[in-house]
Design a protein that fits this description.
Elements lengths: L19 E9 L4 H10 L7 E7 L5 E9 L3 H12 L4 E9 L2 H4 L2
Antiparallel strand pairs: 1-3, 1-4, 2-3
Length: about 110
């Protein structure tokens, strides 16, 4: 059985840093939003490290998607965020980067 990687073979992370890009997507509830977001990564042969979704709001009409991807450069992170913002029903995409304590050491 093959092992599933979150990065394509031969693709390098930002230097030796494995920072985690975090995406927070707010959208209207629509069955096509989640597959369209995952498709952005799948087209590049990538699998998100973590993904959580929930339906919120008084009318249960808001979709919140939180997604993490290890090893994206800042330019790649922004490119993914811009692509997500173009998806129908997506209202807002926020990004941040996190590092483990080991990664933060000089």
């Amino acid at each position: 059985m093959s092992r599933l990687n979150t990065r394509r073979e031969g693709q390098t992370a930002l230097g030796t840093d494995n920072a985690t890009a975090c995406f927070s997507v707010s959208a209207s509830v629509d069955p096509g939003v989640m597959p369209r977001i995952i498709e952005l990564f799948a087209k590049r042969g990538l699998v998100p490290f973590q993904m959580n979704t929930c339906v919120t709001g008084a009318g249960m009409d808001d979709l919140q998607i939180d997604l993490q991807m290890v090893g994206l450069s800042p330019a790649e992170t922004e490119q993914f965020a811009q692509s997500m913002r173009q998806i129908v029903c997506v209202e807002r995409v926020l990004t941040s980067t996190k590092q483990t304590a080991e990664q933060a050491r000089p």
